């Protein structure tokens, strides 16, 4: 299961202001523009703690406003005109434009005056060699400041496009040190997770639109979401799924529209969950629906979300696999889009594990929210994908899959992100359900403690607020603990049972 994000897209239509000079004009969104202006001014006023220095500028990503008027203004940071990867920040403004601090992972302001000693062409060759895709090409190169715990380093961000042997598209982001020419980091922009009436969910209602004498699988009530049949193709949109009778599929895989009905239902339930539970109006919170594509390639046992097309794509599966159109997969993949448009967690190291876990968490909550008797809520990931019935991952004890981590350690960040996600998945299970035996599993703790769960609703609200208000692109597990405690304090109060449960659950997975 994968997710794509385009290089440089954040800055395209955003506001830009020098730290010392506020813009004279605003964007088309007055409220956001005003919040942006005030946030930059507050950063300048608190330049020491915010690590703001001469030569820095910011663009607006989005603004979240609480019921009490508190604003959380998410900004991207630039130094001498270059993006600062890991320099993004969330400015928290209270009533009367009062400073309530900023959430960021930047350790030090970028060093000015750094010069590249390696050419862009050389960086491109290094990046091509780092890719394991079957076909590959350089799609873009830009100089950036790459921030980590030690500070910032001038680097080239090279995007290597192409495709893997199984047909999955690749968009590998490779950071090449602009001084030494070595690879600092890399992450796949198209994020993958496993190999891999409706087929999975029985007879359901799906949104459709009458056009002439035929019905289109197009949901006007959920941002205009449409479902297309790629018919084995790997590009474009394919053919819009239509029906003369307003019935799509027959529950069997012999009918091509069955998978389309699954995809439409998954998109519908994901939209409804975010809208009803969190008040989020679509993946980008702008009321615009994505679109879905089914029957991708041949015997393709995977599914992926792509920011570049703002679309969801499903394969039909291969030997031992069913189509990857189950509810938790739909919720998982489209949540990558939500994460991209909020915290933007980088898909490597601990932040990559948190990115994957966030998709597992909300994919699970979408499944519970749908309350479908054919696919009831559980804390298993991808349990309907294999003919063997073996899930891809387990949240009660992630290590049951043979690879995932139950507990945090200093080596977790070196694991594949699908396995390092186990720490956050385990945390969320303990927070929602609790430790020990239940009807959903038997969850141990890493410190031998007993944890009492607070339920999906409260646990989900805390994680969503932490993601959208406090986490940034390089948030690690320690940062996620801080973010979720801040979210719990906002929602339920410091020292509340919910706040204490968050503390206990993180301790139970060795994040202290």
If you had to describe this structure to a student in words, what would you say it looks like?
With 512 residues, the protein is α+β, with helices and mostly antiparallel strands. It is 29% helix and 25% strand. It has helices spanning 30-45, 47-50, 120-130, 256-278, 327-340, 349-370, 417-420, 422-432, 456-470, 477-492, 497-508, and strands at residues 2-4, 16-18, 56-65, 71-79, 82-85, 89-94, 98-104, 135-148, 151-163, 169-177, 183-188, 209-211, 214-216, 218-219, 225-229, 239-240, 242-243, 291-296, 303-306, 311-315, 380-381, 393-394, 436-438, 441-443. The strands form 5 sheets. Strands 2, 3, 4, 5, 6, 7, 8, 9, 10 and 11 form a 10-stranded mixed β-sheet that branches. Strands 1, 14, 15, 16, 18, 19 and 20 form a 7-stranded mixed β-sheet that branches. Helix 6 (349-370) packs across helix 8 (422-432) and helix 6 (349-370) crosses helix 9 (456-470). The longest helix has 23 residues, at 256-278. Residues 1-30 have low confidence and may be disordered.
């Amino acid at each position: 299961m994968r997710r794509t994000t385009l290089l440089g897209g954040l800055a395209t239509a955003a506001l830009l202001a020098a730290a010392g000079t506020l813009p004279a004009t605003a964007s088309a969104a007055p409220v956001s523009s005003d919040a942006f202006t005030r946030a930059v001014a507050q950063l300048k006023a608190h330049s020491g703690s915010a690590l703001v220095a001469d030569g820095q500028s910011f663009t607006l990503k989005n603004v979240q406003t609480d019921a009490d008027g508190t604003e959380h203004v998410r900004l991207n940071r630039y130094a001498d005109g270059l993006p600062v990867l890991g320099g993004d920040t969330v400015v928290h403004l209270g009533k009367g434009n009062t400073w309530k601090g900023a959430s960021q992972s930047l350790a030090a302001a970028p060093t000015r005056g750094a010069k590249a000693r390696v050419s862009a062409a050389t960086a491109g060759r290094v990046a091509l060699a780092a890719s394991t895709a079957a076909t590959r090409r350089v799609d873009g190169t830009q100089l950036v400041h790459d921030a980590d715990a030690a500070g910032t380093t001038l680097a080239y961000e090279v995007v290597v496009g192409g495709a893997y042997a199984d047909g999955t598209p690749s968009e590998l982001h490779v950071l090449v040190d602009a001084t030494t020419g070595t690879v600092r980091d890399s992450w796949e922009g198209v994020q993958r997770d496993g190999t891999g009436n409706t087929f999975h969910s029985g007879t359901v209602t799906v949104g459709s639109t009458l056009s002439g004498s035929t019905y289109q699988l197009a949901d006007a009530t959920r941002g205009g979401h449409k479902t297309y049949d790629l018919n084995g193709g790997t590009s474009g949109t394919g053919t819009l799924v239509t029906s003369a009778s307003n019935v799509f599929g027959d529950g069997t895989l012999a009918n091509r529209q069955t998978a389309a009905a699954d995809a439409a239902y998954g998109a519908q339930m994901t939209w409804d969950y975010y809208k009803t539970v969190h008040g989020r109006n679509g993946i980008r919170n702008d009321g615009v629906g994505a679109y879905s594509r089914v029957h991708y390639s041949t015997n393709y046992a995977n599914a992926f979300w792509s920011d570049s097309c703002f679309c969801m794509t499903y394969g039909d599966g291969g030997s031992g696999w069913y189509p990857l159109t189950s509810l938790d997969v739909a919720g998982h993949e489209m949540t990558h889009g939500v994460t991209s448009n909020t915290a933007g967690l980088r898909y490597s190291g601990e932040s990559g594990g948190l990115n994957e876990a966030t998709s597992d968490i909300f994919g699970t909550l979408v499944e519970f929210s749908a309350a479908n008797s054919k696919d009831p809520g559980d804390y298993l990931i991808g349990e309907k994908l294999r003919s063997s019935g073996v899930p891809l991952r387990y949240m009660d004890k992630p290590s049951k899959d043979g690879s995932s981590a139950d507990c945090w350690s200093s080596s977790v960040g070196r694991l594949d992100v699908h396995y390092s996600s186990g720490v956050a998945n385990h945390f969320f299970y303990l927070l929602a359900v609790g430790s020990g035996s239940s009807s959903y599993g038997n969850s141990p703790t890493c410190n031998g403690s007993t944890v009492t769960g607070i339920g999906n609703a409260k646990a989900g609200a805390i994680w969503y607020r932490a993601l959208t208000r406090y986490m940034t692109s390089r948030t690690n597990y320690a940062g996620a603990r801080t973010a979720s405690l801040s979210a719990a304090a906002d929602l339920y109060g410091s020292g509340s049972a919910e706040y204490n449960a968050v503390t206990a659950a993180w301790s139970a997975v060795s994040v202290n």
